[in-house]
Design goal:
Strands 6-7-5-14-15-16-13-17 form an 8-stranded mixed β-sheet. It has a 6-stranded mixed β-sheet with strand order 9-2-1-12-19-18, covered by helices on one side. A 3-stranded antiparallel β-sheet has the order 3-8-4. The protein has helices at about 20, 30-40, 55-65, 100-120, 140-150, 160-165, 190-200, 250, 330-340, 390-405, and strands spanning about 45-50, 70-75, 90, 125, 130-135, 155-160, 175-180, 185-190, 205-210, 225-230, 235, 240, 260-270, 285-290, 295-300, 305-310, 350-360, 370, 380. It is of the alpha/beta class and about 425 residues long. It has a single domain (about 25-415), classed as D-Amino Acid Oxidase, subunit A, domain 2 (D-Amino Acid Oxidase, Chain A, domain 2). About 25% of the residues lie in helices and about 25% in strands. The protein binds flavin-adenine dinucleotide. Flavin-adenine dinucleotide binds next to helix 3, strand 2, strand 3, strand 13 and strand 17.
């Protein structure tokens, strides 16, 4: 990428300054250690980023742009099939109820996705709009509307009749209200991370495929000097970022442990009726149904892969290395029953694809972007918790500010704010 923000004309009207995220209410003062890090020049600073998912790739990108010498390492490849970033598509939306911090991050990330999309051969952001619909007026909706208003985001509040008129492929029976966000929509997940890593390498970053083994004994005392790959190579650095998604608890069992819980997610794609273009992006939005707390969401037919459905659950604990990636008949039956009720024209549609992935849930749904408690040059980045993808650009920028000591830390991203008891609070 040659620049961080797309042309103003290509962006929706979003009036959010990038600094507002970091200097917002509750931001802690810059620590003395951070002040010391800030004092150093970035030229010649060697930073190793381990994990080329969406968080690691954007962190590496922003580091490079700020003058560091960056090596990005991944065991299986950027946005590989086992990684949480490895799916086809992810929702980007700004509706977050009370959690305005994520509304700001999504809004600040959007122009960065637009800029990446502009230099990628195939589209990365498909701005079909996002429709959240609700059985009644509820706090999440009113708080989201208030946040949108305060930030000047171009959202629309729709009643059932209007939703039915605009989106006839969905049966809105039992839904009373909807929030439509133009300008947001679908991110092509795997493509975007692979494009970003490709740009990173072309811009002078290095990428190395390799498995980082357990940290050297004694590394926990003070600082880390080098990582060791399974083929025996060591890579030295001044600072290290571990953006390992659902693998973070595996490499850091003492520090992360149960603070991140990987859980199983299944997604399904169905062929739309032949010749019917109403299920394409544009006529059809990206959508989420606040079905009395039983949350389903989906995508239009992107690039002819099929119309995608998922039941958002954060339940069955899995291991990202060993979980069975075959879809279950029970999950398929649940999605088909939902599909037939809400999307009657898809009744009987052929299952074209299914994928099994995992969320890497932090205990409360907030990200973890914090220094290792004993290794002062190691930053841990993760806990995307089923909603992290869209925020990749701003997570990367925030992580780099922490490494360089150029912004205050956000208490919600701290290790101290997470526990082994899981109570998801961010939706
Ligand atoms: C089905 C599904 C749907 C989702 N939907 C949405 C959505 O609609 N919107 C949204 O915003 N978010 C969504 N998310 C969440 C989002 O995709 C994740 O939070 C995000 O992709 C996490 O990225 P990451 O970089 O932290 O982890 P990952 O993408 O998992 O990357 C971690 C990387 O670390 C590497 N690694 C691990 N261990 C080692 C090691 N020892 N040595 C070297 N490399 C290693 C792995 O190979 C991997 O590539 C969804 C997630 C899933 C699974």
């Amino acid at each position: 990428m040659s620049k961080d923000r797309g042309p103003a004309s290509a962006r929706p009207r979003i009036d959010v300054t990038r600094r507002s995220l970091l200097i917002g209410a509750g931001g802690a003062a810059v620590s003395p250690a951070a002040a010391a890090r800030r004092g150093k020049s970035n030229k010649g600073r060697r930073v190793v980023v381990i994990g080329a998912g969406v968080f690691g790739a954007w962190t590496a990108h922003h580091l490079l742009k700020r003058g560091a010498n960056v090596t990005l390492v991944d065991a299986f490849g950027p946005a590989n099939s086992k990684a949480s970033s490895g799916g086809e598509s992810r929702v980007t939306r700004a509706a977050y109820g009370k959690d305005e911090i994520y509304t700001r991050m999504a809004a600040d990330s959007l122009p960065q996705w637009q800029a990446l999309s502009a230099v990628s051969g195939l589209p990365i952001l498909i701005a079909a709009g996002v429709l959240f619909f609700f059985p009644n007026e509820q706090e999440y909706l009113t708080q989201s509307v208030a946040a949108h208003k305060a930030m000047g985001l171009p959202s629309e509040l729709l009643d059932r009749r209007e939703m039915q008129r605009r989106f006839p492929m969905i049966d809105f029976t039992g839904a009373a209200l909807g929030l439509f966000e133009p300008g947001f929509g679908a991110l092509m997940a795997r493509r975007s991370v692979q494009t970003l890593v490709d740009r990173f390498v072309r811009d002078g970053g290095s990428y190395r495929q390799g498995l980082v083994e357990m940290l050297p004994a004694g590394a926990a005392a003070g600082r880390l000097d080098a990582i060791r790959l399974s083929d025996g190579e060591t890579i030295g650095g001044d600072q290290f970022v571990f953006a390992l998604g659902p693998w973070l608890p595996k490499l850091f069992p003492d520090v992360i442990g149960e603070k991140i819980l990987p859980t199983r997610q299944e997604v399904f794609f169905f062929a739309p009726p032949a010749g019917d273009r109403s299920f394409e992006a544009g006529p059809m939005p990206v959508w989420a149904d606040f079905n009395n707390g039983d949350f389903f969401y989906g995508f239009p037919d992107l690039e002819a892969r099929g119309v995608k459905f998922a039941h958002d659950e954060h339940g069955v604990k899995v291991d990202p290395d060993t979980q069975d990636r075959r879809p279950t008949a029970a999950a398929l039956a649940e999605v088909v029953a939902y599909r037939d009720r809400r999307f009657p024209r898809l009744k009987g549609a052929t299952l074209t694809e299914a994928r099994v992935c995992q969320y890497e849930n932090s205990s409360n749904g907030d990200f973890i972007i914090d220094f290792h408690p004993t290794m002062s040059n190691v930053l841990l980045v993760g806990g995307g918790s089923g909603h992290g993808f869209k925020h990749g650009p701003e997570v990367g920028r925030y992580a780099v500010d922490q490494l360089l000591g150029t912004a205050a830390s956000e208490p919600r991203f701290s290790l101290a704010s997470k526990s082994a008891v899981h109570h998801r609070e961010v939706h």
